[in-house]
Amino acid sequence: MRYIRYAFLGVLAIVLVAIAMANRSMVELTLLPPDIATLLEFQQTLSLPLFLVFFGGILFGLLIGFFWEWLREHKHRAAASERKAEVRKLERELKKTQAERDKDKDEVLAILDQSA
């Protein structure tokens, strides 16, 4: 299975390098459309190779997706945390109840009851 993963990563690296080599031409990115930029008197441009724009867009989309999913799953993490706290509370209560039940018993019999 490890070799399949390495082969996949190798093929992926070759494909990404091929895309980068095919899209080396420079493109100019502008922050705002020209009409809005003149209205606000603010224009920011940046020249980058096209493959950086492409890979940056993919990375930005992945980060937004991961963050959105993390926010969406908050209720599940909170419910799991509540259940874990309830289980700990019930385990403490069970140990306390067993200790009260076994306080008048012989120690050997109490240990045997706990193992069963």
TrEMBL record:
<keyword id="KW-1133">Transmembrane helix</keyword>
<keyword id="KW-1003">Cell membrane</keyword>
<feature type="transmembrane region" description="Helical">
    <location>
        <begin position="46"/>
        <end position="68"/>
    </location>
</feature>
<keyword id="KW-0812">Transmembrane</keyword>
<keyword id="KW-0472">Membrane</keyword>
<protein>
    <recommendedName>
        <fullName>Lipopolysaccharide assembly protein A domain-containing protein</fullName>
    </recommendedName>
</protein>
<feature type="coiled-coil region">
    <location>
        <begin position="80"/>
        <end position="107"/>
    </location>
</feature>
<dbReference type="InterPro" id="IPR010445">
    <property type="entry name" value="LapA_dom"/>
</dbReference>
<dbReference type="Pfam" id="PF06305">
    <property type="entry name" value="LapA_dom"/>
</dbReference>
<dbReference type="GO" id="GO:0005886">
    <property type="term" value="C:plasma membrane"/>
</dbReference>
<keyword id="KW-0175">Coiled coil</keyword>
<feature type="domain" description="Lipopolysaccharide assembly protein A">
    <location>
        <begin position="42"/>
        <end position="94"/>
    </location>
</feature>
